[in-house]
Amino acid sequence: MARLPSTAPRPPSPSPVRSAALLTALLVGGLWGQETVDQFALGGSLDRYGILPRDPASVWHVLTAPFLHYGFAHLIANTGPLTVLTFMGALRGVERFLAATLVIVVVGGLLVWLLGRGGSVHLGASELVFGFLAYLLGVGWWERTAPAIGAAAFALFLYGGVLWGVLPTNPVISWEAHLFGFVAGLIAAALLHRRGVPRGRGAVDP
């Protein structure tokens, strides 16, 4: 006997806006929860899990450093741009945005570990801020659709001024995390959004 196709209605998938808002709330809320515990219960001891360049014992800290801060003032400075850029990036698709975040954390962090100033501990979500900004700019470049270009232009309008942060202008700020986070964001956009190169007319398969 042939099986009849199911007529049960499928549950509606969550809207992109709702999914992006949920992801943003989880990320920002998690950072604030972690910093609150660190400051009031652990005395700031989690800061030792920042990146210490070229220290073999701290190479795995590339996974923790972007989610740590030197106190609430540091976290407050990152919260605004991180919230906006996370939401904008997640609107492009939560799964791809999570993949982009992984690329930014790993590639950007490893570059800081390899090339950052020795004797300094590098941490903070500014690596993500610069990475997400670069990701949105890169998506606009690679996709070249009206929504992607519009998002890139809006992100550049809001936060283009922070790009000065990739320069070594302040010795107490990890400009390396800014620079390499930005580079990693561009790499993530190219890996996840670059269109395949079209074949020329008349080309044959080898």
UniProtKB/TrEMBL annotation:
It is a multi-pass membrane protein. It holds the Pfam family Rhomboid. It comes from Deinococcus hopiensis KR-140. InterPro entries: Peptidase_S54_rhomboid_dom (IPR022764), Rhomboid-like_sf (IPR035952). It comes from the Bacteria. This is Membrane associated serine protease, rhomboid family. GO terms for molecular function: serine-type endopeptidase activity. Its main location: membrane. The chain crosses the membrane at residues 97-115, 121-142, 149-167, 173-192.
